[in-house]
Amino acid sequence: MPEKQRGRYAALAIAAVVIVVGIPLWWKTTETYRAWLPFSEISELDSLQLQLSVDIEVVFSRGTLTPEQQKKFPLSHVNEKEHQVDAKTGLRYKYETRYRTATIMEEDALNQPTAAEADLSLHMLSESSCGSVVVYVIPESSTLLPEVRFRAFVYFYILKSLLKLIMLIPAVYFQDVKVYVGQRRTALLRSPPFKTSWNLKEVLSNLDVEVEQVVSTMSFGHQDIVAALSNRVRMTKVTKESMADSMRAIKSSPGYEITFSLLNPDPKSHSLHWDIEGAVQSYIQPLLNKLAPIANFSVDSQILYYAVLGVNPRFDNSVSAYTLSADSLSHVINPVEARLGSNAASSNPVLNFLLYVPDAHHSPLFIRDHSKREVPSNAFHSPRWGGIMVYNVNEMYGPEAERPVDININMAKVMGVFLAQLRLMLGVQHTHPPTGFVLQSPGSAGLADWELDRLLWSRSVENIATASTTITSLAQLLDQIGNIVINDNIAQQVSSAVTSLQSAVAELEAGNLAFALQYSREAILASERAFFDPSLLHLLYFPDDQKFAIYIPLFLPMCVPIVLSLLKIVSEAKKRRADKQAKSD
Amino acid sequence: HTHLNYKLGLTLQNRTSEALTPAAAARDEFQEELVIRPLHSGDIYASFQFRTLWDTDFLQEGQKVSHYRLFPKSLGQVLSKFSVRELHISFTQGFWRTMQWGQPFIPSPPGAELWVWFHDTVSDVDGNWKELTNVLSGIFCASLNFIDLTNTVQPSASFKPLGLGNATDHRFLRYATLPREIVCTENLTPWKKLLPCGSKAGLAVLLKSEKLFHSSFHSQAVHIRPVCQDEQCTSKAWELRQTLNVVFDLYTAGQGKKEWSLFKMFSRTLTEACPLATSSKVYVDITDNPELSPATPLLSQAVVLGDRRTYSVFDLTRAETFGQLRSLNLLLRWKGDGEMLRPLLHAERYVAGFGLQTGEIHTVIYNNHPYRAFPVLLMDSVPWYLQLYIHTLTVTSKSRDNKPSYIHYQPAKDRHRPHLLEMLIQLPPHSMTEVTVQFERALLKWTEYTPDPNHGFYVGSSVVSALVPSMVAMNTNFTQDQPLFSSFVPVKEESSYFVRVYTEPLLVNLPTPDFSMPYNVICLTCTVVAVGYGSFYNLLTRTFQVDEPSLPLAKRLANLIRRIRGVPLLT
């Protein structure tokens, strides 16, 4: 029956058109635009293997080695250590140590009367690259070190529970000074007693322990690096202290706003003057100049009148002064913060430093720590937020003074505290030097070169960790929700973040610390920009079941006849075959 | 091993000297002022002005201003970041009734208004403007972020810089209004925070939102401009003026008695000046001789908006102002039967027409001066969805065609920019001038409608700016307080004054669709497609066979009976 045959063909043709043209057309016109993303490279980044390479130079000065031993110089040695932090993160430290003898000029420099001068003249001779460490081994009998111990102070901070009260405590070590760490990237190491019978290998292996201590002081320790990975790794193995360090320091960001605010709750009694411009210029700016490779800083200041702390200080009869206990400090910040105002011109994180001059009726005011002792600095800080210092002025005028009293604030005293707090916030970790170490105070720059290096190491690692987590979670999100539109600019940001990340890892491996930081900053910027792009948040995501409910009036009447006629064709074909079989039987 | 009580700041110890430089002479000053004026309608007009003057330059190349004392840091940062030369922002709740209340000291349109002159070094003005509006919306807690290119215009003549510098290139000017913006406490709080004394001392203690927003009119503004530092104008200073104008309807609320006190208005009294202010004064308008207590010997005369007014002055920086009670509560009682000075310039606007397709905007400007004609600048910014027919623009005065001497018209681009119409019109004396233009309402895309589209769409106030001849100059026969020799030729600077009048904003209905439309459209289209497809499919796949015609029903029934009976069947 040709007529029936024709109907069959027509049904098949329509089914074919619907399947070949209709469905792809519908699919194409309703799909969301998704630019290509480097998913495979991102999944590689998911398991991060970081290698940190440090160049170490060990220089033997005259009188430390026998001529016999010196003949084998120069010599180099590579030492690698591997740590598996968790299933997806591994660390490898590569210490490339080169041994050589001192040049004549270096010998001259080492003959300076004091270690500080020797440090300076060594620095003049050659500038070592960022991230490297030079250790000069000086004879046991050298007079450089014992004198040093009376000049250099080690300062460290005592931390008290949650609200870390700062005390700067200078300490003079009376142990035998073994190592002197200068303001730059050099250290002087007193050679341990070598037996003349030892061959060079034994001498070097004897030195190894000390050199390692020097390196972990001056570049990075394992704990610091693991703490910097806190964005990727669940913390279990980190010591409480390096954890506290990394939690106190403000998160890595391309820029920071530093705001100094003078709070004057009582302008009727006190007319306060602070030379903040000069103080910033002489105390804060040198440190910030030094930190310029890490981030851009901008400093501003304001005076807030009638700004009060959130808690009422308690009057203590025994000292006839008002006191703030450590427990109440956590309530101080919130009410003040409403007055501080956010920075209108940028979205960088803000570090606030408040100088609070108590009003005439509530002074003097002292902060007490948990053991009820007065905090000598009369200051405290709040992690990742900033610091507050209380500045009592009641002793500066008598009861008959004419109100308002003009008061000049001693900026040296104030800035000393703020500078210490700023160092903490920026993550300049205080080091716990092993016994026998003397660290030269950073001097006018506020930061020694090796301290900067330590910061660069941990910041690079932190940036890489943060950027890689951001990128992988973004990729995961985009993978899971198929409806999100991926614009070309997001794809571009993601791929530039991935390339920057790869370069940062590579530079870290090659030991180029400055470039590694640079690339890691770019990576973090690009990844954040991609992650927080508003185009990912368009509210155009309908659940699939609702979408199909809307299409049902179209799909149902179209598909039912096609399916029915296909079924009919199949059943007819079956029947015909059965008939044929029956016939042939 | 450690010395606990060691001195602080150890690392710095060797570099600091105990001798401190004396504090730099304060280069900024702060003034506060309150003017109270009883209105003829029985309402009270209170106008606060806070002025901070700082002789610094935000636009200096290379050197960033970053240390603030009295000037608010947030605004200073905005000025230097966006290279703003002048910034005027106002938030107003309610409409200023010029005919009942006279001219305000600082006029403002209902809703939010923002106009900014950028420095002429700015290359991307639109980009700066966009970012600036976003930042300002954060500072003032307002929806200024809804300002975009579709409601921003660049008036060519109406908004000239008020401060130093005669910028004339209007490419650096941006003007936008949000007539729908509702002003409330959340805008007042950040505004008060910009004051050096906050709301803790001085005149600002009166600014309690529960009273301020219980009023007929409330307007708060911030004006920043560069001004001369001294008379020779050798260097520039920046002036920040924060103004707050409020009209209290105490007449109806107070049982028809025309009397008020500070306490009644603000539920506070004044106890002190802001200690940071160099001057802190309260002026009370006593031109119409009301009863004022406490009386003050200090009087001040000023010509304000073309009218000579007398004020009692209370200086808050002097202790005797507060008297024995150490608090100042002004009390005023007045009859209010004096003639009110009729405002010489007045404008109103309405939309006419019927249906949802076309309409007509009428702007009516009144010149109430008995014998002087003067020109006014009319500026109209109309959103793109009202498509103006500019050929229908007519200007008539005294039922005669009045040809504008200057017309600047920038047509709208759909979804990109609004219409801008500026005209210089000469107003004949004692006349009413009517400007009409027809428009057609556009159909919006369904995502472009506001959440409550049936409320209608707002069109911002039109702005009438003019130099109005002064009433003082007009009054030629006053000899009471001026010698004859001084009053023959009117003094030049008093002969006219600048006035800006804002009309009402318009509320226009646009054709509003049913918003379940997309779903309906999908369903309907699908059904139509499915029906068409179904018949088409049937037509193509159905096989046609010649069918034997069946017997009619009667024959079949007959056959049934015949079968029972065993009779041969019919065919």
TrEMBL record, chain A:
Record's keyword terms, sorted: Endoplasmic reticulum, Glycoprotein, GPI-anchor biosynthesis, Membrane, Transmembrane, Transmembrane helix
Main location class: endoplasmic reticulum
Signal peptide residue numbers: none
Keyword Disulfide bond recorded: no
Subcellular compartments: Endoplasmic reticulum membrane
Positions of transmembrane segments: 9-27, 548-567
InterPro entries: PtdIno-glycan_biosynth_class_S
Pathway stated in the Swiss-Prot or TrEMBL entry: Glycolipid biosynthesis; glycosylphosphatidylinositol-anchor biosynthesis
Swiss-Prot/TrEMBL GO biological process terms: attachment of GPI anchor to protein; GPI anchor biosynthetic process
This protein's GO CC annotations: GPI-anchor transamidase complex
Pfam family, one: PIG-S
Topology of the protein relative to the lipid bilayer: Multi-pass membrane protein
Stated family: Belongs to the PIGS family.
Record-given protein name: Phosphatidylinositol glycan anchor biosynthesis, class S
Species assigned in the record: Cyprinus carpio (Common carp)
From TrEMBL, chain B:
Entries under InterPro entries matching the protein: PIG-T
Pfam families the UniProt entry points to: Gpi16
GO biological process, one term: attachment of GPI anchor to protein
Gene Ontology cellular-component terms listed: GPI-anchor transamidase complex
The protein's name in its UniProt record: GPI transamidase component PIG-T-like
